[in-house]
Design brief:
GO terms for molecular function: alpha-amylase activity; cation binding. Keywords: Carbohydrate metabolism, Glycosidase, Hydrolase, Signal. This is Alpha-amylase. Strand 10 and strand 11 form a beta hairpin. The longest helix has 18 residues. The chain contains 12 helices and 41 strands. The N and C termini lie far apart (70 Å). The protein is α/β, with parallel strands linked by helices and 672 residues long. The strands form 11 sheets. The chain has an 8-stranded parallel beta barrel with strand order 1-2-3-8-9-12-13-14, surrounded by 5 helices. Strands 15-16-17-19-18 form a 5-stranded antiparallel beta sheet. Strands 21-27-26-23-24 form a 5-stranded mixed beta sheet, with no helix packed on it. It is globular.
């Protein structure tokens, strides 16, 4: 009887843990693995190739909605398929399964973007897909659409079509353009539960990010989480009013316990206002992460795909400056920080260092943060972690001189992290793990209350011992070209303590220039019409990617008139400097005011010839790229001038020793 009671108690505790939506004292950090139109950077294969590096810093990666949506190219918020088609804009179903499996093997848990407020239809207003999964068929009908969908327009259409809508009104805000689902419907509830369970069971998602939870009552989030028991749940309740956001968390309660965390929009707006206005004292504003009762359920962020500046006429509501200081703020605060992919890509070493300090000090989602001091030009606060105390100083007046108590570990533009040396005992390495171009330097710093502590280290991956190489406090080590595994610890009373590891891949890269040639002869009949045959022909280059962007800053981009002759043909030509081993250039070409235009041409990193032709008759407003310099596999020839090769996933390597297909001099080549 006692054993049965113990088992029952254990099961009850496990269920309660699942039901609470987010773990207590959770020290993880999440990466938002996409931005708007991030089709190349967020390709499942691209993300998978970064799994090892990401795993050193991120515990969770939030992916975009991963099924095929209504539109061929889509970020997934016009969700259509739920069960049967996972060949999306980011890759195939097999690639998605491989990505999540690789993440899991590297200790990363994956969060699914779940769009259940609304759903797309095929051609009419109410023709949802019928799908079969595990021998069960799921189908929604017009009766699964709320009665007041689209402000009454759906009801008008239903009457015209001779069909019925639900008898229930929307339990949240209306969203025009797609059908708002009636979560009071038993059929909708059954399908949503099966969908979420499938995401866990088939794909291996650990949790859910619920899109637009303002659109339906919070009690339904509780219903779905209780049924499927995700390890993590976070809702997008987009509102800066902290009382409304807290009320949503309360609305997800089951047995008086919240079943979901929520994105901390209030703290995001606090940070945006402070840094955009240059009033650093305003960082003392509101945030769920600042309230002990709600910090556990606060998923903090400073930018996402909806707030970022998308360029053109879609400027949204971005952090316009001091991106690093903004990230340093949330990474030193309670809550679970979420780092935006663009911020991570642009500032890898800084953000990696911020995360490393957070984890070194043991800051988690229920840590305590207290204001230390502030004025209009700086803001300072302390955070208590499980391994010590940390001081964060932000703003242009960020210098701090109390070295008797605090030791500066790392910092950058308008941000600095200090630790309290009397409560710490570890080594800090200034260069984060990762891939770098050219020989690097890393500084080792000892933070200890023992004056006799010594730094010991190895560079071959072995655990340091008392007899390993020793470094003085503040000594810089050179990291050469190649692979280096640095391990360093503190030698105290003959024992090496608190060993840290850094993995470095140093690339022998030298910047070089490339040229991009686009056909100017118009020989095939006229994709560019009169612009190609006029006295002053031109073409528009819309440019992005790597270190490159359109100088003009608005569509249709930079006007190029320069031409060169090659292989007996005339080409528009533009030169680019490739400045890093990961640098690429992406294009859309157009003529006139920007129409017709090509599809995206991506990942150009070597001199390339791009041939463009018109579509078939009757579709002259569209343009196809019919060939580029990397379309055809050719045998490798001697005498090529580019010393670098690239794998098909884009990794730069020396001339390969293994037989295979690689990109070299802008072409796919077969190395035998």
């Amino acid at each position: 009887m006692k054993r049965t009671s113990t088992l029952f108690t254990a099961l009850l505790l496990a269920a309660t843990m699942f039901a609470q939506g987010w773990k207590a004292n959770y020290g993880g950090v999440m990466l938002q693995g996409f931005y708007w139109d991030s089709y190349q950077d967020t390709k499942w294969t691209n993300l998978e190739s970064q799994a090892k590096e990401l795993s050193e810093y991120f515990d969770l990666v939030w992916l975009p909605q991963s099924a095929q949506a209504r539109n061929t190219t889509s970020m997934g918020y016009d969700d259509y398929y739920w069960f049967t088609n996972y060949n999306s804009s980011f890759g195939t179903e097999a690639e998605l399964l491989s990505l999540i499996g690789t993440f899991k093997a590297n200790g990363i848990k994956t969060i699914a973007d779940v769009v259940i407020n609304h759903r797309a239809t095929t051609a009419g207003w109410f023709d949802f897909p019928t799908e079969t999964y595990n021998n069960v068929t799921y189908s929604m009908t017009s009766k699964d659409v709320v009665k007041n969908d689209d402000g009454g327009a759906a009801l008008t259409q239903a009457q015209k079509d001779g069909v019925q809508l639900s008898d229930f009104m929307d339990t949240g805000e209306d969203w025009p353009g797609m059908r708002d689902l009636d979560h009071n419907s038993t059929n909708v509830q059954t399908i949503v539960k099966a969908y979420l369970q499938m995401l866990k069971d088939k794909f291996g998602y650990a949790g859910f990010r619920y899109d637009m939870v303002k659109g339906y009552a919070g009690k339904f989030t509780a219903l779905y989480n209780n049924a499927t028991k995700p390890e993590f749940s976070v809702g997008e309740y987009w509102d800066g009013d902290i009382n409304k956001v807290k009320a949503w968390v309360e609305s997800t309660k089951s047995n008086n316990v919240p079943t979901s965390a929520v994105f901390d929009f209030p703290i995001r707006y606090t940070v945006r206002n402070a840094v955009n206005n240059g009033n650093w004292a305003a960082l003392d504003g509101v945030g769920l992460a600042k309230e002990a009762e709600y910090a556990r359920y606060a998923v903090t962020f400073v930018e996402n795909h909806d707030t970022e500046d998308r360029g053109g006429n879609s400027h949204q509501d971005p952090i316009r400056k001091d991106t690093l200081a903004a990230n340093a703020y949330i990474l030193a605060m309670p809550g679970t920080p979420t780092i935006f992919l663009k911020h991570y890509q642009a500032n890898k070493n800084d953000i990696k260092n911020m995360i490393s300090v957070r984890k070194l000090i043991g800051i988690n989602n229920e840590s305590k943060a207290v204001k230390y001091s502030s004025s209009s030009d700086f803001y300072a606060f302390t955070t208590t972690g499980t391994n010590g105390n940390m001081l964060t100083v932000l703003g242009p007046a960020k210098s701090f001189s109390n070295t008797n108590r605090w030791v500066k570990l790392t910092g950058g533009y308008h941000w600095a992290y200090y630790v309290e040396k009397n409560k710490a005992n570890f080594v800090w390495a200034s260069l984060a793990s990762g891939t770098y171009d050219g020989e690097q330097s890393v500084t080792l710093t000892a933070v200890s209350n023992d004056a006799n502590a010594q730094i010991v280290y190895t560079t071959n991956g072995n655990e340091p011992t008392a007899s390993s190489a020793k470094a003085t406090n503040g000594q810089a080590l050179t990291i050469p070209v190649g692979t280096t595994v640095l391990k360093a610890g503190l030698l105290v009373d003959g024992v090496v303590k608190n060993i840290i590891t850094r993995n470095y891949n140093i690339v022998d890269f030298k910047p070089y220039n490339i040229k991009v040639y686009v056909n100017a002869d118009n020989a095939d009949g006229a994709w560019a019409n009169a612009k190609m045959t006029s006295a002053n022909p031109s073409i528009n280059f819309w440019i992005w990617g790597g270190t490159h962007k359109t100088a003009k800053g608005s569509w249709p981009g930079d006007i190029v008139t320069t031409t060169e002759m090659a292989d007996g043909k005339k080409w528009f030509v533009k030169e680019f400097a490739i400045t890093t081993s990961t640098d690429v250039v992406n294009f859309v070409f157009s003529v006139g005011a920007g129409s017709p235009q090509t599809v995206n041409i991506e990942n150009i990193k070597a001199t390339t010839f791009i041939n463009i032709s018109s579509e078939k008759e009757g579709e002259k407003n569209k343009v196809n790229v019919v060939s580029t310099g990397i379309d055809n596999v050719v045998a490798e020839r001697n005498g090529t001038n580019d010393p670098y090769y690239y794998t098909l996933s884009g990794q730069r390597i020396a001339k390969p020793a293994q037989r295979g297909i690689y990109i070299h001099n802008g072409k796919k080549v077969l190395v035998k």
